[in-house]
Amino acid sequence: MKARVTVMPKKSVLDPQGVAVRDAVAQHGLPEVTSVRVGKFIEVEINGLSEADAEAKLHEISRELLSNPVIEDYELHIER
Amino acid sequence: MKARVTVMPKKSVLDPQGVAVRDAVAQHGLPEVTSVRVGKFIEVEINGLSEADAEAKLHEISRELLSNPVIEDYELHIER
Amino acid sequence: MKAAVIRFPGSNCDQDCFYALQQVFGVPTDYVWHKDTSLAGYDLVILPGGFSYGDYLRCGAIARYSPIMKAVVDYANNGGLLLGICNGFQVLTESRLLPGALVRNRSLHFICEHRGLRVEATNNPFLSVAKVGDVLNIPIAHGEGNYTADEATLDELERNGQVLLRYSDLEGNVSDATNPNGSARNIAGICNAARNVFGLMPHPERALESALGSEDGKIIFQSILNTLGVHSVA
Amino acid sequence: MNSAVYLPEDPAITPEVIAKHGITPEEYERIQSILGRDPNYTELGIFSVMWSEHCSYKNSRPELRKFPTTGPTVLVKAGEENAGVIDVGDGWAVAFKMESHNHPSAIEPFQGAATGVGGIIRDIFTMGARPVFNLNSLRFGPISSDKEQTPDNVRHNRRLFSGVVSGIAHYGNCIGIPTVGGEVYFDKSYEGNPLVNVFCLGVLKHEEIARGAASGIGNPVFYVGAETGRDGLAGAAFASRELTEESKEDRPAVQVGDPFKEKLLMEACLELLQTDAVAGIQDMGAAGLTCSTCETASRGGTGVEIDLEKVPKRESNMTPYEILLSESQERMLIIVKKGKEQIVKDIFIKWDLPHAEVGVVNDDGMMRVKVGDTVVAEIPAAKLADEAPVYHREVKPRPAQKPLESIPCCDVQLALRKLLADPTIASKEWVYRQYDHMVRLGANILPGSDAAVFIVREANKILAATSDCNSTYCELDPREGAKVAVAEAARNLACSGAVPLAVTDNLNFGNPHKPENFWQLRECVEGLAEGCVAFNTPVTGGNVSLYNESPIAAVDPTPTVGMVGIIEDPAHVTASFFREEGDTILLLGELGSEMGGSHYLKVLYDRKEGLPPRVDFAKEIALHDTLRAGIRQGLIRSAHDCSEGGLGVAIAESCIGGELTGAHIDFGATGLQPEVLLYNESQTRVVVSVKAENVAALEQLASEYGVPARVIGSVGGDTLRISADGKVWEWEAAHLKKVWSGAISQCMLDARQEF
Ligand SMILES: Nc1ncnc2c1ncn2[C@@H]1O[C@H](COP(=O)(O)OP(=O)(O)O)[C@@H](O)[C@H]1O
Ligand SMILES: [Mg+2]
Fold this sequence. Notes:
The complex is a heterotetramer, with two copies of chain A, one copy of chain C and one copy of chain D. Helix content of chain A is 35%, strand content 38%. Chain A is α+β, with helices and mostly antiparallel strands. By secondary structure, chain D is of the alpha+beta class. In chain D, 35% of the residues lie in helices and 23% in strands. The longest helix of chain D has 24 residues, at 152-175. Chains in contact: A-B, A-C, A-D, B-C, B-D, C-D. The structure holds adenosine-5'-diphosphate and magnesium ion.
């Protein structure tokens, strides 16, 4: 089983990487860019666990380990 | 217009971060995890450019700026 | 008294902190391994700088779940003096022992250099021998020391006198130009509401002798020892 | 016994396959005679990496024999082990070495530089030494552009520069070893082929020296550290070829460094070496498992047998060829004393590191590789490791440079600003600010002075270290240029108050098959050797990197010198910046007049020509002795040598490098053209500052050593004011500082960053 977790900086939180990348993108021939946010993309493979069990566990892990709720939001997708 | 770029370490390339996170996930009550890979997720917002123009430009930027083709692959999704 | 320096895999200022306590201040000090589970008998615990678990995922995020951290949290909740330096500060915010978070420096570069730090509050065990407005010259060395928290949290920190150090110039002026990393309100170090947990990005253990460019780090160690009623040799 | 099997899935050994491995027909015959049969594919791969220049020094070995390698302080000689070891007194010793990662950095600057740092650190802790500081010597194509539009090549150079610096910072900072000094040069000759030379120094007690020999028949062989993947397959062979457009295409998987793992590996190995469980230890660097097994066996006069099934692997279905030639990072081979296996296991479990018993030491002299019961390679270890072919390459001298006829006149005022803004001369703060140079509580003199000065706490010693090489001089006259490199390194140490101990070097040259390139190599080696004899600094080791060619031409010959010295007393530690208003400024040495190869000609006129400055070692040593005596007697408060940009730049740097100050300089009547006076690069000159009351004493001291000393001015004011021969020039000190300290960051504003 495969899961994908996207972790993004919260809208309200400063994202220094996003700012730097936006400036670089604008310089790189795309001045029309208005905003960039940089987060993480985490692919997790799991073996030998029911989907229901895995999903609950993965939410917990995404919340407690993979993201920091003070500054980040996460989204979990389970590949079926 | 919104674009999403996922940048992942190539399969053959060592992903030390993925290994460290896999171990942490296993410790965190999910010993069934077999592999983790960690990449970047980049959200780009663009204003006032036709989709066709943007797409070509975004591919170029993804290849040259957002990813390092020697060790990473990227995927570009344009939100319509 | 007895002090503990926690060693996570990837800690790299552990030996420096040990040297500071044991050699410079004559404080009996132990290393405590991250797989240990007890901190009984210690009067001061330091979470040292470095790259715990390679700083993978987020700085301090994996260390937070080391076996020793349960003991660290209990120790702090029981009022024990806890000092987190650099990566140690990051572990403290990840563990929610301190509010806010530390993100990438706005330049995206690692920065290593001496910096002025204005003392903002002294009614705590960590700066008791300083005066408000004093400027300490202490080096920083980090890539992710950009302190961030929501406005309400920041206001509360200010109100409670939990902001202990701000980046300034050597005259004590605080401005965007004296902010090395983009930290909210130039914050370099904060303590918890109970004032027994202190996290800071600068490295006081690197500023203990003139041969290294500054002795101002002694203020912090001396304050802690005074609080504990220890008369040190330094 | 000739029993290695030919695996059906392996490619057949055709002349093309042999050539693709960089093996000549003659070398192939040699392989056949060593084996008494044809090699199989795996064995061919093994020979190809072991006999690459990178591992065997087959082209450079005869030259390297010219270096002085012995001396009363040498505990482990060059070539004997992974790094030389030098006595520093009181039972303590240091191990240090320099290594290049030029080609990997050209392809992937961040990881290339990072893994270079990882490699040199492993070399040091393999010796049983705890690494305490790093240096780095970096060379790139130009990063500044006058035009509005930055040309692509400049953009690319910036990207390489930025990536390399980030990579070094990433690895060194994470592992917690301070990077305390180095050098950065920018020159067209490095376009497309940057040089990345990294240096590490470690400290140990005499009795802690660890050996890389597989001794003790029956002792188990352990593999510890990261799992093996298909990383950098045959990187050693890759490093021994020219970079071409295709090399980007046929790149194997780039090695990715994991400083976190290396930190654990280092701590675990140093902890293990404190026990008596280890018979031999060897890092897996270039050519990985292959090189470490056959070298340990060769050094031990034994054989080693390993089973690839037991090797920890990251990927599935790896062939023996791939496992043996992989250059995955952060791995070590340990020969364990029989019966002490549990000690090893316990320590590696404690540090959460992969480890496995993969083989055994035997007495038949063979490197035997098995997969289960099948023998997949069987080669006499000593012959493989030590009987690589040796080539005496053809040399062809290049025509000597002509002396310069005249020196163009310029706006002297503007020239100093231009020189200070040239990235090669400008402040390197942009670089070293990204390096943690303060961890381990040793940075006594921070980066920015002539040499790094470092307090080694465990040994209670103060060391000074520097890396130097003016490759423009080497291009114009390789022998003289190399001599200057050694002299400058020794001078930088003397300015800091140190006595030089020993040298490590990194020879970066072009393709050795081109006779002119090989001539440069030979001349440089002989020049270095002469210098090392003169300063009594044996060469303890180093590295050779050939085939440094861009599509256009070979890089300028670059024999980088890393020199380490010792300072006896903390009171003798001296920096290169003026310290106090009113201090008197003296020049020790002549006014000089040599303009060949000068930065003045290069920066202002884009000319790289003329005869580079000559160094007279006797005069140089007299100068260094004067400096050290003056420092010991408490006379000298700052000392800065004249190098690129000459006296003008040296004086300016002394004003602006530390606490900002001005200076008033009056040379009186010199009879020299102003450009020559201020910007000539004659050697053997140092600008010092002293308290006014000590001037006479220093002059007296200098005259005892036969060193010219002249008072040229005093420290103070807001401007640098220089007068000579009735002319006066004046610069605002703060402005010079701004120009000098901002030059590199200005160039790098729009460079791509690692994020
Ligand atoms: N790559 C680098 N890393 C760290 N420090 C550096 C680097 N390059 C230069 N420096 C520091 O900047 C200072 C000036 O270097 P350089 O101009 O090469 O000095 P010099 O000409 O006296 O040898 C030195 O202290 C040196 O250690
Ligand atoms: Mg110098």
